[in-house]
Fold each of these.
Amino acid sequence: MADFIDYLFGIDDSWFSYLVAALVAAVLILHVVAVGALLFIWMERKISGRIQDRLGPTRVGGKFGWLQTLADGIKLIAKEDITPDLADRFLFKIAPYIGLAASYAAFIALPFADGVVGQHLNTAVFFVLAVLGLEVFSVILAGYASGSKWSLFGAMREAAQVVSYEVPLGMCVVVPVMICGTMNLTTIANMQSGFFTNWLVFNDPFTFLTAIIYFTCATAGVNRAPFDLAEAESELVAGFHTEYSGLRWSLFFMAEYSSMFIVSALASILFFGGPHGPIPIADILGLLPTENLGSGSAQAFNENADGFFAAMNVQVMIARVLGVGNLILKGVIGVTLMMWIRWSFPRLRIDQVMTMCLKYCVPLAAIGFIGATAWQYLDLPTGNALVDAPRYEHHEMWTDGLSKNESDVEAEAEAVESVEEVQTPHANDKVTDASSVTVKTVPVSVEKGGDQ
Amino acid sequence: MATSKIDDPRVIEFDVRTDEMLINMGPQHPSTHGVLRLVLRSDGEVVSDVEPHLGYLHRCAEKIGENLTARQWIPYTDRMDYLAAMNMNLGWSLVIEKLIEYDLPERGRHLRVIISEMGRIASHLVAMGTYGLDLGSFTPFLYGFRERERILNLFEEVCGARLTYSYLTPGGATADLPSGWTDKCREFLTQFKEVIPELHTLLTTNSIFVSRTAGIGVMSARMAIDYGCTGPVLRGSGVYHDLRFHGEERYTEMYDGYVFDVICADPETGKYPESNYEFHGDKLDYPEIPRQAILGDCWHRFYVRMLEVVQSVRLIEQAIEKYEATSGDWGKPIKLIQKLPAKEAYMETEAPRGQMGFYVVGNGDSIPWRVRARSSSFCNLSVTAPLCQGILLADIPAIVGSLDVVMGEIDR
C-alpha cells in the first residue's frame, strides 16, 4: 500500500506514504469491525430466533429486519452515559475502549487474502493472540471499577478463565506454526492452497484433534456460551457490564463480536485453508497465472510501472476477492457455530470450566502437539497424500524442507518455546526459497510493505 | 491457619486474610423467580450462608378474603400461584364445597380433572423453562412457553382469560367447556407428546445440564418431610406421597376411576415407575437416570416434574373420554352471597408446586370469618438456607430454581 502511494505521488519511501497507508488500512479495518458487529448481532438474533421457533427481527429496514442492529445502535448512542457514584470514574470510562481497541488491533495482522492485510507481520500469529489477550484487561477493569459486587464477580471469573484457557489455546496454535515453520499467517494460509485435503486440519489425526481443541478454547477465550461466566445473567445479573449503559455498553458488544470473528478467522487460517476454498477455483480457471506475477511486490512497481499494473490485473483482483470471500465465509461459519452452541447449551459452572481447561483441554492439546510433531518427524503420510486429487500446489514442500533440517525437528520435539525460536528465522529463509523455487505457487512476499 | 494468634492485637498488617462479602441477590435479580431476596454470605465463589427474605409481594390476600364472599375471593386465589391459577381456584372451590357440603355432579368432576391437569402441565412447563434459564440455557424456556401458549389459548376459549382465570368456582365452574373444545384439546395433546422428547434432549439428558444439577442440593427424604416440603420437591426425594392418591376423600374422589402413576423413585432401587408414555403406538421409555444423580438432588426434582407432565397427559386423555361420556349439569356456581355455615373447613389439594391448603371459618354470614391459605412454595423455600451452605454461587439459581417457588403464593 505504501509503495502504491509512493508510486502515485512519485515519491520514494516517504513517511507521508506510510501515514496515508496506515490511515486507509485503519479505516477499512474499522469498517470490518463495525459492520461485522452489526451483521453478527443481527445474525445472532435471526439464528437464535430460528433455533427457538420464533422469527427474530422482521420490520426495521424492510425485509428480515436487517437494520435492527443499526436502530438499536442509534438508540444506544442516544442513551444517557451513566457512571455509578461508587465507580472509579477514569477506569470505568476507559475500560470499554481498551476492549474494543484490543479486538480491533488484532485485525491489523489478519490477512483476508494473499496481500489483503493491514500490515504484514512475520509474527502475525503471535501478534493476534497477544493483542487479543489484552481484551481481558477491559473486563477486569470494568468489573473492578464499576463499584458493584456482581461486576467484581464477573471480572474475577473472566480473569481466571481467560488466563487459564490461553495455555491450551497457545499450545493448539503452535501446531500449525510448527508444521508450516512460520508464524506468518499469509504463508500459513498459502501453504494450504489447492484442494481441501491440503488443509492442515486434514494433515493428520492430531491436527484434527488440535483444531477441535482450538475451537473450544477460542470459544472460552472470547467468553461465549457455555463459557460465558463473566456475564452469566442468571447468576451475576449481567456480570462485568452490569453498570454500563449506552454507547459504552455497545462497545463491549462490538468487541465481543469482533473477537468472535477474529478467533474464527484465525481458526480458518490455521486449520481450514484460510482464503483458499475447498476447491481451487481461481487456479482451475487460471485466474492466478503461474508466471509473471510479482504479487504487487515492491520490486514490481519500483522497477517499472507496467509490472505493477500487470500485478494488479483484473484476474488477480477477482482471485483475491474470492479469497476474501472465502475467509469471511469461513469466519462467519465459525461464528455461526458459536451462536448455535450458545443457544443450545446451558452454562457451565466456574469449577467445571476450570476442570475442563486443566483436565481435558491442556492434556489433549499436549497430545495433539506431541502427536503432530511425531507425525512430521516420522514423515508419515499427510491427508493430502492419501487422496488422488489433482494438485495445483506443492503442498508437501514444508515437509520436504523439514526433512532437510532434522536437527531442527528434534529441537521442536523438545519444547514449545524452542519451536518459536528455532523455526522463525529458518522459516523466513525457507519461504523466500519456496517462492523462488516452486514456480507453480503464488509467491509469498514477506518483505516489508510487500502487500497491496 | 485461620486463627493465627498475634500477640499485639494492634498489629494487623501481618494478619493477611480475606473478608467475607455480603451480597444481596434480589429482589430485582433476574433469577430469583419474582421478588425473592437472598442475602448471601460469600467468600469468593463459595457461598457459606443464604438467607431468604420474603414479603415483597404481600397483598393481604387473606385479610381481603375475610371481607368478601366466597365467590368474590376467587380472583384473589388466581393471583396466589399465578402460574397455576386454575389449581388455586380448585383448592378454594373444594374447601367451600366442603364447608357447605355441596356435591359436584359427575360431569363437573371430569371437567375439573381436565382443567386442573392442564394447569399442572402449563405450570410445569414454566418450571422447566425457567429452570433452563437459571442454568443459562435460553431455548428450552421458549419451547416451554410455546406449548404453554397453546394451553393458554385453550383456557382463553374456556373462560376468556389467559393468566387469572377465575374459572373453577365453588359449585363447579363458571361455564361448561365450549363445544368442540375437547377435540382441540386432543389435538394439543397429540402434538404436545411430540415435544416432550425434545425437552428431554435439551435439558434432562444434556450432559452440561446433568453436571450442573446432579448431586447438587441433595435433600434426604427425612429432611424433606421435616421441612414440610410437598409436591415434586417431596417426591424428588423419594417420598411416595401425592394427595391425588393420599388426600382427603372429597379430593381423591375426583380422580376415582382414573389410572395414573405417582411419579416418585423407589428409595430402595432408585427406579421410577415404568413408562406409560405412548406415542404413535410406540412405548417411549423415560430417559435414563444419569450416573451422577443422587436421589433428592436438583436433577431428580426436575425429572419428577418432567414425568408428571406425562401423567397429566394420561389423565387428561382419560378425563376427556369420561367427560364426553357423561351428560347433564357440569355444576353451576353457587350464589354470590351464599351463606356459609358456622363451621370450619380445611382442605389440601395437590397443586403443581405441592400441597395447597385453604382454611375457612364461616359464621352464618356470606362473608367468612377467617380465611387462611397454606402455601406449598413457602415450605419448599424454607429448605433454601440448609441446602445452600458451602456451595458455589452458580449453584444457588440451580437449587432455588429446582424448588420452583412462586412468590405470589408465598407472600399472598
Amino acid sequence: MAVYTMKEAKPAPSTSKGLVFWLRENLFSTIPNTLLTLLGIYFIYTTIPPLLDWMIFDATWSGTKEEVVKEGARWIFIIEKFDQFMYGFYPEALHWRPNLVAIISIIFVFFIPRLSSIKIKFVSMLLYPVVCFILIRGGLGLEVVGTEKWGGLMLTILVAAVGIIASFPIGILLALGRQSDNMPIVKTLCVGFIEFIRGVPLITILFMASVVLPLFFSDGIEFDKLLRALIGITLFQAAYIAEVIRGGLQAIPKGQYEASESLGLSYWQGMILIILPQALKISIPNLVGSFISLFKDTTLVLIIGLFDILAMVTLTNSDTSWLGFEIEGYVFVTLIYWVFCFSMSQYSRVIERRYNTDH
Amino acid sequence: MKVTKIALILGLASTLPNLVNAATLEQVMKKGVLNCGVSTGIPGFSATDSKGVWKGIDVDFCRSVAAAVLGDASKVKYIPLTAKERFTALQSGEIDLLSRASTWTATRDTSLGLNFAGVNYYDGQGFLVNKDLGVTSAKELDGASFCIQAGTTTELNLTDYFKSNNMEYKAVTFDTSGQTIDAFKKGRCDAVTSDASQLYGLRIKLDDPKSAVVLPDIISKEPLGPVVRQGDDEWFNVVRWSLFATLEAEELGVTASNVDKQLKSANPSIKRLLGVSGKAGENLGLKSDWAYQIVKQVGNYEEMFENNVGKNSPLNIDRGLNNLWNKGGLMYAMPIR
C-alpha cells in the first residue's frame, strides 16, 4: 500500500516577499521612482532632525525666562500661559466647570450612540446643552461668569460646537425647503437664504454682527457680542450644511420616496423614517468635512475682539514680560488644531462604519 | 420672520436716534462698573499678564476713571476691541470709555460723533537701527533700507520725510510686526520704522536687545488719548479731569505711597487736588475725594508711565515728549482751582 507522504513545502520565491522585494517594488521600481524616493529621503533628513532638535532635544521645558536656550523651543512660555490658552480669562478657581463640561461632552459623544432607549437618548440630547450652558455661564446658584471672560481653547470648542449643533437642524430644514417644489414661497425663501449666505464671506457676517448690528439697537438693549457672533456663525454654517444634505437627498432614488408614500406615511414620517436616515448616512463624509472647516473658521472671531486660542497667541505675546514667543505659541496652537481636526475625521470614520448597512 | 425682524430693527433705528447720548456718568454710577474699551494686545498699553489680569498705561487710565467715579479702581469691565470696531463700540454704547492707543486726528474728532478727552501718550514714528551702523540721527539714513508693516500710514510718513530731506530709501514691507522684526534680525534691512512705543516692544524680541537703539528723531505726530461720545459734556469733563488729576498729582509730587501724608499738606494746590478744600469733585458730579482715590489706587501719571512702559518695565521707554511741561515734555494739566 502506497503511503502518502506529504511533500515538503517549498520556500516562497525569495524575490516576492520580504523587505528587499517590498523596497524594490514600491520605492525603486523605475528610475523616476528611485529619484523621487531619494529626494524624499533627503527632504526628511534635512527637515525632521532639526525640527526634533528644536521641539524636543534643545527645548527648554522648565526654569525661568532668563535662563532659556535660544536655539530650541522655549516651552516655558506655553507652560506659563497655559491657563490662558485653555480658558481665556475664566476665573482660575472655577476652571473645574469647563473641565467638567469637557468630561460630560466626551461621555456624551461616546456613550449616547450606544444607548438603546430612544427616550433616554432624546432627553439627554435636550439636557446636554442646558447643563453645559449653566455650568459654563453660571446661574442656579453657580457664580455667573460673563462671556467677556470666556476665551482660549474653551471658546474655540464652544463656538465650533454651537455652530455644529445648532446649524444641523436648520440645515436639514433648509435642504428640505429647497427640495419642496409644491411650496414655492418656502422654496424661494430657502434658496434665497442659502445663496445669499453662501455669497458672502464669514468675515462679512461677523463684522455685520459685531459692528453694524449694535448701531441699530438703542442703549437699553444689550446684546451679547459672543451671542451675536454665534448666531452669525450658525446661520453661515446652516447654509453650507443645507447644500451638503441636499446632495444626500438627491442621491436617494425616487423609488424610495414613492415607497414611503405608498406605505401611507405622511411627508414628515417618510422623511424621518425612510429618506433622511439614508440621505444623512451618505452625507457623513461631507458633513464632517464641513464641520472640520467650521472648527478652523472659528478663528475668525478674533477679528471682532473675541479671544479664541489663536488670538491668545497675540495677546499673551503682548505681555511686556513675555515678548517674542510667537513661534512657540503658533506651533502649540497648530498641534492643538491638528489633534482636534484629526480626531473629528477619525470619529467620522467610526460613525460611517457603524451606520454602514451595505450588503 | 427674518424680514420682519430686520424691518423692526431698521424702524427702531430711525425712530430712536442716539438714545446713547444719555448721561453716561449717571449710568456708570448706577451700573457700578465702568465698561472700558481696550486693545486686543498692545505691549505696555493694554495686555494681560500670566494671571489674565489686564495691565498697561491705557488700562491704568480705565482704572483711574473707575476710581474717580466709583471709588474703586477694580470696578472695570474690560472690553477688548480690534482697531476696526473700536469707534463703533463707543458709538453704540457698548463701552463708556475708549482707552485704546487711538490717535487724535481731525477726522476722528469731528466726523465720528466722538470726542478725544486729552492725550495720555505722545507717540510718533521713529527708527530702530543696529548699533553697529553707527548712526545717531535719522538724517544719516540716506540710502538705507527699511522694514515696515504694510498698509499702515508708516510708509506714507516715511516717504514724506525722505522726500522733504532729499534722501533715498528702500522699503521692504511685511504683513505683521513679528515678521518685520524677524527680517530685521536676519539683516534684510538697516532699520525698522514704526510708532516709537512699538519699536521698544520689538527691540525686546531681538536676541540681544542692547544691540539696537531707537533714534531720538520722531517724524510724525501720534497723540494717543482716551475717547468718549460726543454730546455728553458731563462725562467728557470727568474723563478729561481724571487725566489732568494724574498729571497734576505728578507735578505736585503726590504719589500712591505718600498721598495719605499729603492730605495734611499745607500746599493749597494739593489741598484742592485731594479735595481737602475747594469744590472740584462736587462740580464734576463726583465725590470730593475723587482725585485722592485715583492717586491712592492707581498712582500719578509718572507711576503709570514708569510701571507700564518706562523704567520699571522691560520696555524701558524714555519719558521724552511725555514728560511734564516743566521738565521738557508736553504734558500739561490745567490747574485745579
Amino acid sequence: MITAKNLNFNYGLFRPKEDGFAIKDVSLEIKPGFISCLLGNNGAGKTTLLSLLYGFINPKSGIVCYDGRPIDRKNIASYHRDVAYCGEKWCADGLTVEKNAEMLSTLYPAFSKELFNKYMEIAQTDRTYDKTFGELSTGQKVKVEIAFLLARKPKFILMDEPLANVDPVFKTDILEILQNSVAENGTGVFLSTHLLDEITDIVDYIYVLKNGSLIKQGSRLELLDDGHGSLKDIMSL
Amino acid sequence: MDDKKIMKDFIARIGELNKNKNLWIIFQISGIAQLIISGRHSLLVKGGGIPIPSLIVAGGLIFMSTVLYIQKYTVMSMGSFEKERSQLLFLIAGRRMADMQEKLSDIVKTHGFDLGIYYGYLLEKILIVQGVSCSIVFIAAMIGSMDMKSALVSVGMIALISLNVWYWKMLISGAAARHKKGLLYEIFYRIVIYIEIMGSFVLLFFFINALSVQLSSIIQVTVLKNINNLNEPVKTIYHEGSAGIADLLFSPIITLLCADIYGLFIKQDRVKNFLFAALCVFTIVIAVMRGMTISNERVSFSENSVSVKHDDDEKEYGLKDIKLYRISLEKDYYHIHLEFNDGRIEEIYTVSSVETDAWKEKYSGETEYFNEFAQKLEALGIKAGEEPS
C-alpha cells in the first residue's frame, strides 16, 4: 500500500504565504486491487501530488510510505520497480518502439513480451514496432506506454491524465485492461483525470483536489449518495 | 534477480545500443601518446620531466576521453536504421541535431533504475580503460621511453581526472534523475557545461599544436642523433614559420569539431567524418612540416664550427671561415648575422632551437654561449660588423 501523510509542497526556494502552497496537508492511501481516482480542475495540483507520490519531488513536510516504509534514496529504485508511472518521459524518442522495449525491459525481470505484444495489438499499435518513438502521434505514444507498463506487471500504477489524448475506442479498451489487471493481478491503480464521465463506472475510490487540498474523498457510492448527485456537483464545491 | 544483476544487464544493453560511439578512443590514445612522446622528448633533450603545457594538453585529452566514454553509457542517440531518414526530416524541419541526443537520466526517472549501482559499474569500466592506459605508460617508462617520475605523474593525473569526471557526472545525473534541479543546481550545471564546451575548444587546439610538435620531435630527435654527437655541446637553431601558417589554417576545423561534439551545429556524419579525417591529415602534415624544418633548415653551432643546411645544401664551416659577424639581442631572442668567406650570408634567429645535454651543462644560457663565440671570433681577428642603419 502507498500512503501519504500530511503532504505539503510549494514550488520555489522560500516558504510561501498560506495560499501559496501547491499541495496543502494531503493524506491518502492507494490500496492494491482498487482503482482510485484523483479528480480536480486544471491547476488543482493533480500532477504535483502524483509527482510527490512517485518520488519525483520531495515534500516540504509530510511523508510518503510504501508498505509502511518511507521512500528514500536507498529504496526508491525498488519502489519504482513496483510502482509504474504513466505521464512522464519514459523512453528514448530516438529509438524504435521495439528497441525501447528491449532496452527498458532489462530493468524488469517480470516483464512479459507476450503481454506487451498482446496489449500493443489491443491498442492497434502493433505496426509501430519499427518506428521511432518520437515519430508516433501523441495518442500512439500513450498506448505504447500503457502497453509497456502493463507488461512489466507493476504492483501499482500512477497515471497522470492517461485518457486525455486517446481516441474514444481505446479509452474503453484501456479502462477494461486496467480493470482486468486489477482483478487478475491485484494491481492498485491511481489515476488523475478531469474527464468525469469516463471513469465513473470503473473507479472504486475518489479523491477530489481543489487548490492543493483534498476537499472530498470516499468511495464512488459514498460520494454519489452524499446528496451531491453527480461528480460534477462535487467538483464545483 | 537482484538490483546489481539488473543494472549490470542494463549497462551492457546501453553499451550495445551505443556501440558505435567510439570517439573517446581517439582522445584516449592521443592523451597517452602525448604523455609518452613528451616524456621521451624531454628525456632526450632535457634529461626528464614532462613540460607543464604538455601535461595540460594530455590532461585535457584524458578529460575529453572520459567525458565521451561516460556519454557512451549515459546519452542515447539514434540507431542506424532511423538515422538517415529522421536526420533528413529534422534538417528539413530546421531542428538542431543536438536535440536528438537524450540523457539517460531523463529516461530512467520513471523506471526502477538504481543510479548508484549503475555508476558503480560505469566506474569499473572506466577503471579498466584507464588501467590499460596507465599500464602502457609504465611499460613506456620501463623500456626507457620516459623517466619513472614522469610516468608516476602521468598515472596520477589520469586517475585524478577520470575519477573526478566520473564523480561530478554522477552527481549531475543523480540530481537530474531525482528532479532536484534547484537554482544552485542549474547554475552549477551551466558552469560545468560551459567549461566543457570552452575546454574542448581550447584543448583540441592545443592538442593539435602539441601533437604536431611532439610528432615532429620524433623526427627532431632522430635528426639530432644522426647529425650530432650528443656528447658535444651543440646548439641547433631551426625555423618554424611554416608550421604557424598551418596552425592558422587549422583553427577553423578545430573550432567546428569542438562545437560539433557538443551539438552546437547541425551534425551530419559525413561532414563530421570529413572534418575528423582532415584533422588527422593536417596533424600529420604539420608534424612533417615541423619535422622537416629542423631536418632541412637549420644552423648548428658547435664549439669550433658552424653547420649550415638548406635542403640538400649542407656545409660545415670552421670559425676561421667566417668573414664577418654581428650578434644582437632582439626582444627575447638573439639575431646572428654571419658572412662567410665563400660569400654565403646567414641570418639566424634563436626563436626555436634545441641543445645537447653537453651544451646545457657547459653554458648557463645563450648569452654566455654567444659571448664566448664572439670572443673566439675576436681572437681569430674576425671583425664584428656594424648594425645596419
